[in-house]
Design brief:
The complex is a heterodimer of chains A (208) and B (201). Chain A has 208 residues and is an all-alpha fold. Helix content of chain A is 72%, strand content 2%. In chain A, helix 3 packs across helix 4 and helix 7 packs across helix 9. Chain B is an alpha+beta fold and 201 residues long. Helices cover 40% and strands 20% of the residues of chain B. In chain B, helix 1 packs across helix 2. Chain B is globular and about 80 Å long. The chains are: A mainly alpha (208), B alpha+beta (201). Chains A and B meet through helix 4 of A and helix 1 of B.
Chain lengths: 208, 201
């Protein structure tokens, strides 16, 4: 069994779903023009990824191998609908702001990716942690991109005004292309740091 | 695991039934709450259009206010809401305005005074415009401009004209030209057909 520390390090940094695996990009581009939307989307995804990985893992020994994907999609869909119903009932404003994106959590590759790559081979508890870790990795990247988009596009952070009236909003930041640029920059920076880390590790092995 | 023919089918049926049951239960237990939310939402918007939205967050008060002052009558596929003062005198109507936006259909209501001369207010029930751009049609900065617009001077059914065109009376949203245009088009069209049907103009 993997230690929780390792699982989280993989999900958040070394194997970050958005920065390293480059999955879940669609929604990362779509909902990141406001930080609040990104946060709720991220929490929704953490919830769905964690619990669906847990469920897939719990029934993995009974699931016939050739229909496992059907089962996974069913489980994921069920949790997404739960999130949707919850938002509609208790956070109607948020449900409106996110609109169709909640339903689209279902098509987020991260969830099925984790179910296939991890939950299918590992016990429920680590699978749950792995799902949560990947979801958090996704959320952090989303929030980072949203921070810059909202700041430059509206002059606000979480809807609170930080830049004064002198600031001219960059309309392009609110539009999808900005997410492309920012995501590319984020991947570039993280990749550079990760390569450096790898080199350092190699150096240590040689030195010791 | 041995490969059997019937097991996967039974497995799938059982697991589908299980999740369907959970979802049906959740749906059933939150249906009232969601319906109430939608009712409050609509009440709030209609009250906002007539500018009589009470400054309270108590949903019961809002719904109560809505029931006391607003009356609905069917109009085509939609409802027209009429607004009365305490004595039962009609002060204005909320007319449904619908049409295509940039990404999807836009639905809203526009309030006009009982003598059809001025706009009381505008609000959108649903739209799917880009958040932060076209989506700003539902912000006060945009929809607030419609309060008190004069309708009598309009020619050729152009009730809403963006500045700086001649006769312009409201500002469009910068960076959301297509949404702004669609909104003015659908308001002008639906308002014109409502006023024509009523035989006013």
């Amino acid at each position: 069994m993997d230690s929780p520390k390792k699982i989280f390090r993989m999900g958040l940094w070394e194997d970050n779903p958005v920065l390293v695996q480059i999955i879940g990009i669609c929604s990362a581009l779509a909902v990141t023009n406001l930080m609040m939307n990104s946060l709720i989307m991220g929490i929704g995804l953490i919830f769905v990824t964690g619990l669906s990985s847990f469920t897939v893992s719990s029934i993995r020994t009974f699931t016939p191998k050739h229909i496992r994907m059907m089962v996974q999609v069913l489980i994921i869909a069920a949790y997404v609908i739960i999130v949707d119903i919850f938002l509609k009932a208790y956070m109607p404003e948020m449900s409106k702001a996110l609109g169709p994106y909640v339903g689209l959590i279902i098509t987020n590759c991260i969830i099925m990716g984790r179910a296939e790559a991890y939950a299918q081979q590992n016990p429920p508890i680590p699978s749950f942690l792995d799902g949560v870790a990947s979801g958090m990795g996704y959320t952090i990247v989303l929030l980072l991109i949203a921070f810059f988009r909202e700041l430059f596009g509206f002059g606000t952070v979480f809807g609170i005004k930080v830049l004064g009236d002198w600031w001219t909003p960059w309309t392009i930041m609110i539009m999808p292309p900005a997410a492309f640029f920012l995501l590319a920059v984020a991947i570039w920076i993280s990749k550079t740091i990760q390569d450096k880390e790898k080199d350092d590790k190699k150096g240590q092995v040689v030195n010791s | 695991m041995k490969k059997s023919f019937s097991f996967p089918i039974i497995f799938m049926i059982v697991i589908t039934a299980f999740f369907t049951f959970i979802l049906a239960f959740l749906n059933y237990s939150t249906a009232d709450k969601i319906a109430l939310n939608q009712e409050i939402e609509l009440s709030k918007k209609i009250l906002y259009i007539f500018d009589i939205l009470p400054e309270t967050n108590n949903p019961n008060e809002i719904v109560q206010m809505f029931q006391d002052r607003i009356e609905s009558t069917p109009f085509g596929d939609h409802e027209i809401y009429s607004y009365k003062n305490e004595d039962g005198e009609v002060l204005g109507y909320a007319v449904p305005v619908n049409g295509p936006g940039l990404w999807g259909s836009v639905e809203g209501y526009i309030g006009i005074s009982a003598d059809y001369s001025t706009v009381l207010g505008l609000d959108f029930i649903s739209h799917s415009e880009t958040p932060g751009l076209g989506g700003r049609i539902s912000e006060e900065d945009y929809k607030g401009q419609f309060r008190g617009l004069d309708l009598t001077g309009a020619t050729d059914d152009n009730y809403i004209i963006y500045r700086p065109s001649p006769g312009g009376n409201v500002d469009a949203i910068a960076g959301a030209t297509l949404t702004s245009k669609s909104v003015s088009k659908l308001i002008n069209e639906d308002l014109a057909s409502f006023l024509k049907e009523g035989g006013i103009r």
